[in-house]
Amino acid sequence: MHAMRTTGTLFRFGARSATTVGAGRRARGFTLLEMLVVLVIAGLLVSLASLSLTRNPRTDLREEAQRLALLFESAGDEAQVRARPIAWQPTERGFRFDIGTVDGWRPLRDDLLRPRNWDGGVTGADIDYPGSDTRASRLVFGTESIDMPVRVTLHSAVGSATIVGTGNGRYEVQ
């Protein structure tokens, strides 16, 4: 076998691998410390992912109130366009919109104002017309652009959210 010497390293031709002079060859792989660091980082990432998957129930309630406030604005606009009153009525498991006809109220079944189940943990709703002593069972959107002020309170196990309509066709969540 032939050997060649170059600046401190001895290479043997015909051998399987090169050997460094003065240093033994270490086994390749990860040390226990490196493996522990990787496991800790993986554990942190998994815990962060699971935290982001759990939602705050109060946030869900507020988002449901926001959706309902937007539906109220759409129902008010739709009542003006159709020149017929539209009413929102809470039900046991959700809510529905009705349209006023000569025979009374009929369920409205279009894509936007279709009957829906409660989301966000909502268990019920109360309708309150400020200044009125009677308890309302439905919220009526008239054919005029000005309506009566109203407060709709959504209830859930974590609290409540109130949707306030000032009578000008806009609704906000408080």
Secondary structure: elements and pairs:
Layout: E1 3-6, E2 9-12, E3 19-20, H1 32-53, H2 57-82, E4 86-90, E5 94-101, E6 104-107, E7 116-117, E8 122-128, E9 139-141, E10 150-156, E11 159-165, E12 171-173
Antiparallel strand pairs: 1-2, 2-3, 4-5, 4-9, 5-6, 5-7, 8-10, 10-11, 11-12
Can you put this structure into words, describing what you see?
With 174 residues, the chain is of the alpha+beta class. Helices cover 28% and strands 32% of the residues. It contains 2 helices and 12 strands. The chain has helices at 32-53, 57-82; strands spanning 3-6, 9-12, 19-20, 86-90, 94-101, 104-107, 116-117, 122-128, 139-141, 150-156, 159-165, 171-173. The strands form 3 sheets. Strands 4, 5, 6, 7 and 9 form a 5-stranded antiparallel beta sheet that branches. The chain has a 4-stranded antiparallel beta sheet with strand order 8-10-11-12, with helices on one face. A 3-stranded antiparallel beta sheet has the order 1-2-3, with no helix packed on it. The longest helix has 26 residues, at 57-82. The chain is elongated and about 95 Å long. It starts with a strand and ends with a strand.
